[in-house]
Amino acid sequence: MPVDTLDHRIEGPDTLSAPVASSPSMSSTIKPAPNVPFLDAAAGHPARHTPVWFMRQAGRSLPEYRAIRGEGSILEAIKQPELSAEITIQPVHRYGVDAAVLYSDIVVPPHAVGFGIDVKPGTGPVAETPIRSAADLDRLRPLEPDDVSYVADTVDLLVAELPHDVPLLAFAGAPFTVGSYLIEGAPSRTYENTKALMHTDEVLWHRVMERLADQAITFIDVQLQHGARAFQLFDSWAGSLSVADYDRFVFPHSQRVFGELADRHPGIGGIHFGIGCDHLLERMYAAGPQVIGLDWRTPIQAARRRLGADTVVQGNLDPALVLAGAEPALKGTRAVLADNAGHPGHIFNLGHGVQPDTDPGVLGEIVSLVHELTER
User: Fold this and answer.
1) Are 272 and 292 in contact (CB under 8 A)?
2) Which residues contact 25 (CB under 8 A, 6 or more apart)?
3) Distance between CA atoms of residues 133 and 111, nearest Å
4) At what angle do helices 175-184 and 192-200 cross, to 10 degrees?
5) Residue 138: which residues within 8 A CB-CB, separation 6 or more?
6) Rounded to whole angstroms, how far apart are CA atoms 297 and 96?
């Protein structure tokens, strides 16, 4: 989650296009935005260079972030538009990345409606009273735009300040991943309560997913209405599911998020991303994104063999190589670019979020190398 807590857990007429006829969200072709590398590549069209951004690029790895962040929960920092806007734009200034991703968190919507969830440093999202029965849905009311007016204010500030060729990316957590925190009450390795609810009270499960899909749609819609030009839906922990469980319990709700946003914002493209989701790749793509995010486990060419030669992909350098230092990181960067083999539909990113102890200088070198090697 380009979001400070991804491990616990993106103006004008510019649009993404739909280059792959087989993708559910790509029934018509939409013109790309000339000279905006991220939007060009996301449309499957040649850009002046391969665009780069990093998930969780704004955050603890940056000394300038630590200098202004202050104490307390990230959810309180997000409520300060000027602070959030400054944090969002820091990596644009430092690295020269080709997109800014809103400084926010996937649990902002349930927090904003008063469900009772916070983000504990070093732990992640924690809900003191997890969902255990239908009565708990009363704390998960629909999200209204006014609930996140501070997010809209942050987006307004960023749209006014960002260069035209650096779009702002909206994002939200997918219903399953957000739901896993609300049901487990904390990060989990087994998702035992989540899976138990799926298989013991399917009616309640789908009611929870419907509420969270509503919230994700509203949250992204607010960001797009105020000038974000693309979005990413994070289903970080969907990889914990079998294909059968994903299809039955998750797919319809993620598909609805992409479908309703496509109806509300024709031409605005979405990215779908999860961790350890190689076995779900076809199903996550069928949910309707225009770009499929890959973690470091799935080779780009393998993904295109499975999804179609024109598939636009995002990824997928192993974040561990960045931690290993400049030499292995740059070697890995060259390997990712070689795997893409010059395909125009490629957005360079890590295969997961930037780790807090990452050397910012290494990320800067990666951006420079990608731009240099792919300049057209």
Assistant:
1) yes
2) 18, 258, 259, 262, 270, 288, 289, 290
3) 19
4) 100
5) none
6) 27
Residues 6+ apart with CB under 8 A from 246: 238, 280, 283
pLDDT in tens, 17-60: 333 333 333 333 334 566 999 999 999 999 999 999 999 999 88
Which residue numbers are catalytic?
56, 60, 69, 105, 181
The tokens for 347 are 């957005």
Angle at 176 between CA 101 and CA 262, to 5 degrees: 55
DSSP-assigned letters across all residues of 87-140: HHHHHHHHH--S-EE-S--TTHHHHHTT--EEEETTTEEEESS---SGGGGGGS
pTM across the whole model: 0.90
Element (H, E) at 322: helix 319-323
Encoding tokens for residue 295? 């973690």
Query: Residues 329, 322: contact at Cβ < 8 Å?
Result: yes
Q: Quick one: pLDDT band at residue 121, thresholds 50, 70, 90?
A: confident
Query: Range with the lowest mean pLDDT among 23-32, 69-78, 201-210, 274-283?
Result: 23-32
Q: Which of 21, 43, 166, 158 is nearest to 96 (CA)?
A: 166
3-state secondary structure of 293: strand
Torsion of CA 7, 191, 214, 77, to 10 degrees: -30
